[in-house]
Amino acid sequence: MFDYRNPYPTPRLPVFARNVVATSHPLAAQAGLRMLAAGGNAVDAAVAAAAAMTVLEPCSNGLGSDAFCILWDGTELHGLNASGRAPAAWTPAYFHDRYGAGAATPPRRGWDSVTVPGAVSAWVALSQRFGRLPLARVLAPAIDVAERGYAVPVVVQQKWAAAAALPEIASQPGFADTFLPWGRAPHVGERFAMPGAARALRAIAATGGQALYGGEIGQALAAEARAAGAALTLEDLAGYAPEWVRPVGQDYRGWRLHQIPPNGQGLAALMALGIAQHFDLRALGPDSAEAQHLQIEAMKLAFADVYRYVAEPGCMECTAEQLLDPGYLAARAQLIDPRRAQDFGHGEPMPGGTIYLTAADEQGMMVSFIQSNYLGFGSGVVLPQWGLSLQNRGHAFSLDAASPNVVAPGKRPFHTIIPGFLTRDGEPVMSFGVMGANMQPQGQLQTLVRMLDHGQNPQAACDAPRWRINSGLALNIESAMPMSAVTGLQALGHRIEVLADSYQDFGAGQFIWRLGEPGRDGYVAASDPRRDGAAVGF
Fold first, then answer.
1. How many separate domains does the chain show?
2. Among 131, 497, 528, which residue's Cα sits nearest to residue 354?
3. Sequence-ordered list of residues with C-beta below 8 angstroms from that of 107, at least 6 positions apart, any chain
């Protein structure tokens, strides 16, 4: 199906194997591969890699992250929503009393941006339901890395140093003690260790996660929150559980893309594909301004609706099914003018800083997994004795009572992290994702069009230059984009800024594509050169 000639500059080649792990850090990929070599399955590999990533890329995720997962168990598709819920005391009045009547959202950093962490609960739920190996065995590589330390790689160091320069992060409780060991961010190649995280991982392994959700880690977390005057309590932690969900999907030229349903932004990728399929993108060059323009406009339309309507399902004015209605998407597609860029508003459907990794094994299990602290280093709050850095997903809530995303006790906020999964005729094809805030659905759309419409192999689709929508007609474009495409988009009315920094601006993906029978034909995998990672296999 794919053309394996890569038209884009890249240091990487596709990886072919029957057992594969792809992550944004090579040591995490190897942690997953060790589980497969030890007789574990793709879930064991994914959990091992995810745990290792909390230590290896702490600017993007940690033990206090949230997570989502889509997996094929060999027979059917499952979804897991492990995004955290608001503390019981959180209301608009709580924040207005603390931060003033003019506050529009909870703060970006600090204790009042922290919801209940969900990632550890995802590891436990996946391991208990689908894993083969004991959790202690699966977490052993992460414990080893945390205790012995590792040499900080290039891209992670760049992100680390940029975050450490922000007073809003560096001044948070426990941050400097944990992440500025020399009074600064580590340099490239310097050894960094997290003995507190090793201690926490051992406790998590020994208790099946209960150490965090009511046990000794949770008690320490609640005590620190109480001392800081924050709302998070031991009862908030002990009452938390992840939710198994049925993924939602959208057909595209015989393929079907699957996403976790709201409270995440996966609908944006589904809607954009559903709009884009009304245009013959295959007839246009993959790097042409015409092809990029149509995708950009489809993405804008999808974002307009997602930002207006998506929240916790019970708080939405319309359902995911209504937003994905074929007639509605066709009507939205008709708004696109191939000759000019537009600034779209939301429609009216009829009533009725992140890491991504993927793993697949020769028995056919495929796992698409994502976890995140949200903005770089999340809340900035850390419990050094446990190596526990906490996300800041609470900042994504609104304080506007009219918003479907208004904060409320026990509610989950709008989420940006979205694992993707592709099937054809009900059979698994690809587990994949693209990291990076609102770049995630944009990256999924662009890479899928390259693979499905233009036959570009997963590594080429990873390496290809990308665009990113901002607001209105503003657009960022990666510096490697052909100049003909840049000038062509400008002629259509897009207001373009070309950027060279691609860490967060243009996302980073991991892809595993099933080639046929896994035990015989295996998979082809790719890892994005915009991060330090690798796809590895045997």
1. 2
2. 528
3. 99, 113, 395
**Last residue of some domain: 396, 427, 450?**
396
Tell me, rounded to whole angstroms, the distance of Cα 158 from its chain centroid. Answer: 19
List helix spans (H) across 100-211.
119-130, 135-148, 154-164, 167-170, 175-179, 195-207
Q: Kindly state whether residue 403 falls inside one of the protein's structural domains.
A: no
Instruction: List average pLDDT for each run of 10 residues in the chain, which is 538 residues long.
Output: 84 94 98 98 98 97 98 97 98 98 97 98 98 98 98 94 92 96 95 98 98 98 98 98 98 98 97 98 97 98 96 95 97 98 82 85 98 95 98 98 97 97 98 94 98 97 95 93 97 94 79 97 96 96
CA distance 103 to 394: 13
Q: What is the largest CA-CA distance in the chain?
A: 63
- 312 and 186 in a single domain? The answer is no
Question: What is the spatial distance between Cα 497 and Cα 486, in angstroms, rounded to a whole number?
Answer: 10
Residue in the block written with tokens 């529009």: 104
Give the integer Cα–Cα distance in Å for 111 and 223.
Answer: 12
- Kindly state whether residue 35 falls inside one of the protein's structural domains: no
3-state helix, strand, coil in the chain (%, to 5): 35, 20, 45
Residue 448: inside a domain = yes
Q: Print the domain residue range for 74.
A: 40-242+376-396
- Shared-domain flag, residues 113 and 251: no
Asked whether the beta carbons of 146 and 387 are under 8 A apart, the reply is yes
354 labelled catalytic: yes
How many whole angstroms separate alpha carbon 41 and alpha carbon 365? Answer: 7
Could you tell me the two tokens for 100? Answer: 């003033």
pLDDT at 437: 86
For residues 462 and 476, the answer to whether their CB atoms sit within 8 Å is no
- Residues near 520 by Cβ (< 8 Å), separated by ≥ 6? none
Tell me if residue 227 falls in helix, strand or coil. helix
Rounded to a whole number of angstroms, the distance between the first and last alpha carbons of the chain is 22
Compute φ and ψ for 257, nearest 5 degrees: -90, 135
Together in a domain, 250 and 274: yes
- What are the angstrom distances between the C-alpha of 51 and each of 200, 372, 378, 420? 11, 12, 17, 20
Query: Which is the catalytic residue, given 354, 358, 416, 447?
Result: 354
CB-based burial of residue 372 (10 Å sphere; 0-12 exposed, 13-18 middle, 19+ buried)?
buried
Q: Which residue, 61, 81, 71, 62, is CA-closest to 412?
A: 81
Three-state DSSP string of 142-158: HHHHHHHCEECCHHHHH
Return the amino acid letter for 377.
Answer: F
How much is the pLDDT for 314?
Answer: 93
Domain contains 139: yes
Give CA–CA dist 448/47, Å, rounded. 26
Is residue 320 a contact partner of residue 248, using CB atoms and an 8 Å limit? yes
Q: Give the gyration radius of the chain's Cα atoms.
A: 22
